[in-house]
């Protein structure tokens, strides 16, 4: 270990991550775009983890390895970085996806269950996320598509978050044994005189239980 890890000026433990930033988010990266880890001083970092400590006034920016050690969390920082890496890779392919063009010259795309589009008005290009319209106007269709990507990504993340915030519950349910259709995966069919249903026990989030039920009712 080196840099500020060798000094006692900064606490080594008890830090909390308050955000992660991708310095290469806007596209191609130059050597000068990378940051230096403020803790070990020698990490060339693209993903900047901003860390706060109750006894240190200013937050500091560090790399993934130092963030893990400082927060004693060896899962969270890696996961947060993976989400940003996933975002960067999707963003790099965004403009070359198969956008459908309408007769009016508008472009649209169905992705992740959402209907997205960009269209031209007198003010310039704007985007539409399902039935929500952008408030800003953009000079080119590509600019509008990239702004749309950010809005769409934010929407997905908030859905993921509300899903993750749901408590996990244990539940037990009785599932009837049916004669499976040929080739289909199904529980064993009932034996004559044997049980006609099985009890399953699982831990799941309420929406998953609901979805499983709806699926069976169809
Ligand atoms: Zn470091």
CA-based shape? flat
Element order: H for helix, E for strand: EEEEEHHEEEEEHEEH
Radius of gyration based on Cα positions:
25 Å
Helix content: 25-40%
- Helix tally equals 4
Strand order of the largest sheet: 6-7-8-9-10
Derived from helix and strand composition plus strand pairing, the structural class reads alpha+beta
Question: Terminal Cα separation, in Å?
Answer: 59 Å
Specify the biggest β-sheet: 5 strands, antiparallel
Whole-number count of domains:
3
Present as ligands are: zinc ion
Approximate strand percentage? 25-35%
Mean pLDDT score: 85
> Tally of extended strands?
12
- Give unreliable regions as ranges: none
Pick out its properties.
218 residues; alpha+beta; 3 domains; 5-stranded antiparallel beta sheet; 3-stranded antiparallel beta sheet; 12 strands; flat; binds zinc ion
Summarize the entry for a quick read:
This protein has 218 residues and is α+β, with helices and mostly antiparallel strands. 29% of the residues lie in helices and 29% in strands.
Walk me through this protein's architecture.
The protein is α+β, with helices and mostly antiparallel strands. It folds into three domains: 3-93, no CATH class; 96-151, no CATH class; 168-217, no CATH class. Helices cover 29% and strands 29% of the residues. The protein contains four helices and twelve strands; from the N terminus they run βββββααβββββαββα. A five-stranded antiparallel β-sheet has the order 6-7-8-9-10, with helices on one face. The chain has a three-stranded antiparallel β-sheet with strand order 1-4-5. Strand 4 and strand 5 (56-62) form a beta hairpin. Helix 1 packs antiparallel against helix 2. It starts with 15 loop residues before the first strand and ends with a helix. The relative contact order is 0.08. Bound molecules: zinc ion. Residues 37, 39-40, 43, 62-63, 65-66 line the site of zinc ion.
């Amino acid at each position: 270990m080196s840099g500020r890890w060798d000094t006692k000026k900064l606490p080594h433990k008890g830090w909390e991550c308050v955000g992660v930033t991708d310095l290469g988010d806007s596209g191609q990266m130059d050597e000068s775009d990378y940051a230096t880890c403020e803790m070990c001083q020698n990490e060339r970092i693209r993903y900047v983890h901003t860390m706060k400590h109750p006894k240190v006034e200013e937050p500091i920016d560090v790399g993934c390895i130092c963030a893990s050690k400082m927060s004693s969390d060896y899962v969270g920082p890696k996961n947060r970085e993976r989400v940003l890496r996933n975002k960067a890779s999707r963003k790099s392919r965004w403009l070359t996806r198969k956008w459908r063009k309408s007769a009016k010259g508008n472009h649209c795309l169905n992705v992740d269950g959402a209907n997205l589009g960009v269209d031209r008005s007198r003010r310039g290009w704007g985007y539409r996320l399902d039935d929500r319209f952008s408030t800003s106007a953009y000079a080119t269709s590509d600019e509008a598509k990239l702004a749309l990507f950010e809005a769409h990504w934010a929407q997905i993340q908030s859905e993921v978050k509300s899903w993750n915030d749901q408590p996990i519950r244990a539940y037990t349910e009785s599932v009837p044994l049916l004669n499976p259709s040929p080739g289909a995966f199904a529980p064993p069919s009932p034996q004559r005189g044997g049980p006609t249903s099985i009890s399953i026990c699982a831990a799941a989030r309420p929406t998953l239980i609901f979805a499983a039920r709806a699926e069976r009712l169809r």
